[in-house]
Amino acid sequence: MSLRQMEYFLAVVEESSFTRAADSLHVTQPALSHQVKALERSVGGALLERMPRGVRLTAMGRAFLPHAQLAVRSAHQAERAARAAAGVAGGELHIATVHALAVGLLPGVAARWRSLHPEVSLVIREYGSTEALEEQLERGVADLAVGPEPAGWQGPLLPAGREELVIVVPFDDPLAGREAVRLAELAHHDWIRCAMEPLVDGVLVLDRACGALGFTPHTVLRTEHTSTAVRMAAAGVGIVMAPAHMVRGAVGEDCVLLPLDPPWHRPLAVFSRVPLTGAAAAFGELIGAGRGPAGSPAQPDPHRPARQQAVDLGRTAV
Fold this sequence. Notes:
Helices cover about 40% and strands about 25% of the residues. The chain is an alpha/beta fold. α1 (about 5-15) crosses α2 (about 20-25), α1 packs across α4 (about 60-85) and α2 (about 20-25) crosses α3.
């Protein structure tokens, strides 16, 4: 079997049609059919069921599909890596990340990248959790990932600063004038919860922390994305916990950010399956050098009152 045959097979699956797949690949339909049949002969059975209107995967095809996707993605990544090894000379750099970092951290980094390396375009792929991010990176969808530092990562990993989690409240909240707030003071507030909320040892970090203080957050609304939750908080629906950099990037001055006392932090990292070279290495160095809006190593803030030792959430999901 060949990489081209797998690419043709994936195109037919994506388009659910030999005709549309041939058009997308700019080949004739007989040539496409010939390659797919050759692939089926090499694996020993039918991968696709030809139907009057379209095609669908057979049981063998369903088993073959994820491996073909990985093979094709890995081949494309290998080609990009080989070209990048000679330096930042052009092409595309594929970056996987989580939604909050795509909104809060990466816009500033991408702007600096464009000024330094205008010949290399960026492709950003967003995921809803670090589990999905790590899984997709392992499957070869990107050249590198930017996210909360993963536990037990076996490939290259560069520290990228850390982010602070804050409480977002509307302007008319009684706490809006405070410089910081203790979690125990929020026991009687209504909460907005997000599917991307951090996890610690499989437990939502907010539930874990509030439970230790003897209360359960009263949830009035749940959302999928952190940016949606922040907009809801700004509108006065309730309060929400979110990364500080994401809040500033998503809603600007439409709400009030309250640091927690003690503050909550978690480390960020740039990580990859293979050694970072060329454009990937340059991007990792750019994030590591600037540390971005997510924040730099712990420094005292002269504008905030003295507080207890910061809470380091460590390696968590988002």
